[in-house]
Amino acid sequence: MSSPDIAEMLEKSKELDRLRKEQEEVLLEINKMHKKLQSTPEAVEKPGDNSLSKLKMLYTQAKELSESEMSISNQLLGQLDAVIPAGGAGQQRRRIEGNEQKKKRMKGDSDIPRLSPSMRNQQEFFASLKGEQVAARVAQEDGEKDEWVIVKVTHYDKESKEFEVLDEEPGDDEEGGGQSNSFCLLNDYSPSYKNYWFYSLANYRKYKLPWSHIIPFPKISDLATTPEFPPGKQVLAVYPGTTALYKATVVQARKRKTDDYTLEFDDDEEDGSLPQRLVPFNQVVALPDGHRQ
């Protein structure tokens, strides 16, 4: 890794530290406002009182800080993936898998009375995805392949930590039998999660999924924090003309943040070679660990 790369990663780490400190300060202010409103709820009815406006501003600030933190964290992960030697991939994968198990245990710990500031920020970020299009893994756990499609988030349940999403692409009649009230049970995601159901409604499929089955797309309105994928990097991308995502390799980096990626999709062979396809940057995300295709 070159010195400029290390310097850039250190700067991002400092920025993460700054964002977390700012988040703690905002959360303290929010808690103060909550105590004030609980002790004197009648204050909001007084002329000139701006308590609710201030509270809304604080929540907006907390949401923006949380989104920035997640974006910079994703950028750091992308940079680390790009420079980790191939020989260390096994060790890196084991470390990641270990971290995922820790996360599952944390989420299964229902006896923890309070969420940490970072977890509260994460919850707020998940809730902010309502109405957004995201990438969702909808295949059964014991399936041979992972199926990722574009869905719309309709709700996030903070208690169960599940997303309710809608696949707006009309499905086959055989999946729902043409009935609006037909149900199908998916396998358990893990011992720490409940069974996940999906049902067909007017040939549109609805799912309840854990956060690990959801990947937000980069926002066009937030180009400064959009992750960069270098040539040779494997990604998950929307195949042109479809609402499905497949594994692909970056052929050409973007010259500008608004440019499309030039990708080669796996298993997309034509006449003995892989065609290069242009995909908008906001339809390309990091390849999930352990992806099966």
Automatic annotation (TrEMBL):
Ranges of residues in domain SGF29 C-terminal: 124-293
Region (Disordered): 88-117
Entry GO terms, CC: nucleus; SAGA complex
Protein name per its UniProtKB record: SGF29 C-terminal domain-containing protein
Organism: Anisodus tanguticus
One of the Pfam families matching this protein, by short name: SGF29_Tudor
CDD domains reported for this sequence: Tudor_SGF29_rpt1, Tudor_SGF29_rpt2
Location(s) in or outside the cell: Nucleus
Recorded coiled-coil stretches: 6-36
Residue intervals passing through the bilayer: none
